[in-house]
Prior knowledge:
This protein is α+β, with helices and mostly antiparallel strands and 400 residues long. The protein has helices at 19-27, 62-73, 89-99, 106-111, 115-124, 138-147, 171-181, 222-228, 242-258, 292-300, 304-312, 371-388; strands spanning 8-13, 31-37, 52-56, 80-83, 132-134, 152-156, 166-168, 188-192, 196-206, 209-218, 232-236, 263-272, 278-284, 329-336, 352-355, 361-368.
Amino acid sequence: MTDARQITVLCLASYHKGDEFIEECKRLGCRVILLTLDSLAGEGWPRDSIDEFYQMPAIGARDEIIHSVSFLARSQRIDRIIALDDYDVETAALLREHLRVPGMGDTTARYFRDKLAMRVKAKEHGILVPEFVHALNDEAVAEYAARVEPPWVLKPRSEAAAIGIKKVRTAEELWPLLEALGDRRSYYVLEQFVPGDIFHIDGIVSERDVVFAVAHKYGAPPMAVAHEGGIFTTRTLARDSVDAQALESLNRELIATLGLVRGVTHTEFIKGAADGRFYFLETAARVGGANIAEAVEAATGINLWHEWAQIELNLDDVAYHLPPHRNDYAGIVISLARQERPDTSHFTDPEIVWRLEKDYHVGLIVASDRPERVDELIVEYQRRVLEEFHAVQPLPDTAT
């Protein structure tokens, strides 16, 4: 690798995450600049690994962010720009294009952020997606509503997780919702609701090759957890299962179609209850949220944040080599809690490898070399968390 001490990495963060990425960059000898929000300045960032710390009221406004980072670039060379959160993917691409910094540009970033763009691209290449339409043109929407049986899901094109998503059961419900969006209507996509189990596959891509991927199955769908107040669970699929092998193949096809050169990915598919086929839901060029990275590491020993840093800082194009790893299994249970600091000390199974430390939240990760044991513990812990800790909070319509 080129002398990493000469490399300056600018990290963008609209949420407090990516500490391990920042620490790995510093371990590799880089200069690290963090640009985050005023509201996040007091969070527990790894200050010892950050050379320069900047904050703004918002980092998504086009002109303001270009002006701010360009001013910064007058006095120092910026070699890499990294989006630590999903909300910053397009902003990072915009800055790379403007400053001509290597990495994913505007067009590819759209495929990993814009739910309409990724669906159009996937469908053009024969990847199965639920029936959808851009929620803009009245005639197109009316034709869709007459042809595609409800319920439908009205989704913001560029929000994260389940924020802003609304389930629509009839055309009579649909039109007032579209009217209420006003000038924001072009930022939405309408999609058929497909009942079924939802899966995610998290991976590492190096020079367009998926060099690592591990598939998991959610418990309740994330949208249901977010909107109806449930408990988040996910667990590693048995690697020799038909579902795991199908998902790995689909994921490779999708990443090749969308054109990611290098980085990490978090992709979701739904297995239709009616036909048993996998439908592509969405993807992202970042580490999955909800502590999925910790679950992946518990099952495999692979830290996605660390490996992402290794790939991004490979300036000499030396072939990336995935480190040795395990093929064990892990599961996670997370919930909002009634208690400010939930006490889980009475959860004593030796398979517990991680506990969430966050006010008014409770979470555990278990790991085993047997998927059946993970399944057993996740079912038991979900019941206990529901009885002892679980709380519900309404989901906002936007991230702000």
